[in-house]
Every structure is written in structure tokens, then in C-alpha cells.
Design a protein that fits this description.
homodimer; 229 residues; Rossmann fold; 8-stranded mixed sheet; two-stranded antiparallel ribbon; 7 helices; globular
Chain lengths: 229, 229
């Protein structure tokens, strides 16, 4: 609405001159032309982050899995379906980015077999099983580049948030990880976030995803300025 | 838009006094609180059918899997997630309906195990497999009721449309089945449909889903009138 547009226009230009690469949404891992594995991510948090980064003056590239959300104004969106496509789109563009924010809920696994035709129920056959293989780890791969951008991960955890998020930050080797309580927040417009870094963790707050995204952008900008990046 | 609203207001009231139960959208079969099996149905065809039936004067109940679509004006929408939930919602309401139109892309199978917590990647463990069990067949169950409503099925086929759709109509034991070329049409606003009944099959046409939905409503109304239903 109008008030939000006015607020947006007055956001500090904390990321002017930076290029930010954001992933958002779920991935869809095809089983056949119709069916697949996915998750309940709406993409709203990632789209809010992309919008907040754009408001802060950055060039923003948003690599998005399947969602029904419109691209934020001024943001370049690249649509992908699978984790492998998201990996490829990110690796092709990460060299130009100073900041990489991985909000997407990327499937850890994909089916080993993708059938060219829709698989049908067969009378008298037993129920099938879907064999899985691991997907590439986008965030860890970017963080392991010789000259990585400033990498920010997201962790949606259904239990032991602090312990699992801190462990995920070390495993992915990223300076900043944002924890949220996934199943409570999927598809909602508000959120409760916690920041994890080398110094420990502290709450970023709760509320509207765009408000939280602006706070996150300010945290990232402050860290980049401190590191002289 | 305005023109479409005017066109809608002038649709013939072919289903006045009837109650129509419509299913639409995909189902989502949970693996854990975050992940699940689903399909690429957008729900657009089913929502267009619900709207067209409402325009034709029917009371319309729309049982919908997860979509981002708004409910058509004047339609009662019941939101469900899984095939089992859709089955339960349909069986609770089908007694009041004279027409049942099953457009939903219902998952044939669901995972045997639903984990209460998000399943994590474990270092060193092999890739898992997802064991599946069959879901209830909503359309066939409704069609097998002692006094079934007039049942209309949909078939999204990626090959051999005519053969597979005709076989599906007999297997489900429904008087009318609508065939479309699924992978070409998922998520699109236009469609190409073919009707299958006891007399054979003939094209319903191609184009905008709402225009096709109105033609389908007219076909259903004519069959009900012929049968004195």
C-alpha cells in the first residue's frame, strides 16, 4: 500500500553499490511429468529479503523455486524448479555478488529415477517406493569458493532451534545463519527470527517478514562494513 | 475484469436449484512437518469449473488442496491438504450434492511413515527411500455409493490420452470423464479438453479455462436433464 511504499522510499541505502544474490521458495524434485517431492515453503521470507535488499540500494538477483508470488519491484528474478537448476543458476551468477542470502528451502534429496511419462497405478502391484539421491549443497558450495561472497544461511527447524542452527552454521561454514521455527511460520506473513554468528546468537525480533528482512539487511550491511568488504 | 463480470451475469441458469461438489488443486502428502509429495496441478481448471457452476445458478462447495488461488465469488471453499482429508471432506458433503466434479489431482500414494520432526541429512548414511501406501480413490468411492450424484472425472494424461481416458472412465464407473493433456496445461490459463462418455468421445474445445468450464457445465446440465435427474 501507499504507506509501505513511502516507508520503502526512506529506507537507508545501506547496500548501495552491492550486488545481492538471493534464493527463495521451495524446490520441486520431479518423479514424473506430474508428480514430485517438495516442501511447504511459501517463498515469502526470501521475497521479503530480496525486496529489503533492493530498497537498501543493492542490485538484486532472486533465484526462485515455484511460488505464486510476484517479483519485488526492481529485482531480477530467475525461475527454477529443481535443486540442481537452482544450483546451476546460483553458480552462474555468484561471481558478480558480494552477498549471498540462501533462504530457499532446497530439497536435500531427489528421486533417482525421473520417469518421462506419468506413472500409473497398476492393479495388483504392491505399493512402490521412491529411491532418493542427494542434491548438491548450494550454500556450502558457495561458501567454499576461493573468494566467496558474504554468505547468509537460513535454518527452518522444528525442534532444538538453537542447537541445530548453530551446528548448521559451522557445517555450512558461513558467517551468519538465520534461524526460524519453520512449521509455525510457513506461508505466514510474520515470523520469529534468531541470528547465529561466531559470537553466539541473539534474537532479531518477530513480526512482519518485510520488517524483519530490513533488520537483517541492516545486520548484513554492518558486518560487511566492519570487515571492510 | 468488468467485461468478464458482465458475461458471467448473463450465463444461462442451467444448474439453478442444484448443489455441485467440486474438488480442485493438488494434494500434499506429508513426509515430515516440512516435506511432502505433491504434483504440479495449479487448481485453475477446478476453480474455473466451480465458478462456472456458480454462474449457472448452482450452490457450489469447492474442496481444495493447497493453492494460492482466491475462492470464486459465492462459492463455499473447504481447504484440505492430503488426499485422506479430501476424501473425508467429500464424503461428509456428497450426500447433499446432485453433481460431483472431481478435478483435483489427488496423489495415488502417500508415505507409509509421517515423521513428527523434520528429517535431517545424516553424515555417512546412505540415501533413504520413501515407502508408499495407496490413498483412497475418492471418485470411485463416490461413484459406487448406492445413490451417487452425477459424477464427472478428469484425466490428465501425458500419453495415449484417448485410450487411457476411456479406460479410466470405465474403471471409475462414471458417466462422464474429461481428458486433458496434463503436462502441457498445468498452471496455464488455457486448456484443451476432450469428453469421454458411453457414446465415445468428442472434443470440448480449447482455450481459456473459464470458457471451457462453462461449456462443460452446459454438457453436464444437458445430461442431467436428459436423465430426468
Amino acid at each position: 500500500d501507499l504507506l509501505q511504499d513511502i516507508v520503502a522510499a526512506f529506507q537507508p541505502r545501506l547496500l548501495a553499490g552491492r550486488t545481492v544474490l538471493v534464493t527463495a521458495g521451495p524446490t520441486f524434485e520431479a518423479i514424473d511429468p506430474v508428480r514430485g517431492l517438495t516442501n511447504r515453503s511459501s517463498g515469502k521470507m526470501g521475497y521479503a529479503v530480496a525486496r529489503a535488499a533492493r530498497e537498501a540500494g543493492a542490485e538484486v538477483v532472486l533465484v526462485s523455486g515455484p511460488t505464486a508470488l510476484p517479483a519485488p519491484h526492481g529485482v531480477q528474478r530467475i525461475d527454477v524448479v529443481s535443486a540442481q537448476e537452482m544450483f546451476d543458476a546460483v553458480m552462474a551468477r555468484v561471481g558478480a555478488a558480494q552477498i549471498f542470502i540462501a533462504t530457499a528451502a532446497v530439497a536435500d534429496w531427489r528421486p533417482v529415477h525421473v520417469h518421462a511419462q506419468k506413472q500409473k497405478k497398476q492393479e495388483g502391484e504392491g505399493a512402490p517406493a521412491i529411491a532418493l539421491q542427494p542434491n548438491p549443497d548450494i550454500l556450502a558450495t558457495v561458501a567454499a569458493l576461493p573468494q566467496p561472497p558474504f554468505c547468509v544461511g537460513f535454518a527452518a527447524e522444528s525442534e532444538n532451534l538453537a542447537e541445530n542452527a548453530a551446528a548448521k552454521r559451522l557445517r555450512k561454514n558461513v558467517p551468519l545463519l538465520v534461524g526460524n521455527l519453520g512449521p509455525d511460520t510457513f506461508g505466514r506473513d510474520d515470523n520469529r527470527l534468531e541470528l547465529f554468528d561466531a559470537a553466539g546468537h541473539h534474537p532479531l525480533g518477530s513480526g512482519d517478514k518485510l520488517v524483519l528482512a530490513r533488520k537483517l539487511v541492516a545486520e548484513i550491511a554492518a558486518r560487511l562494513d566492519r570487515s571492510g568488504g
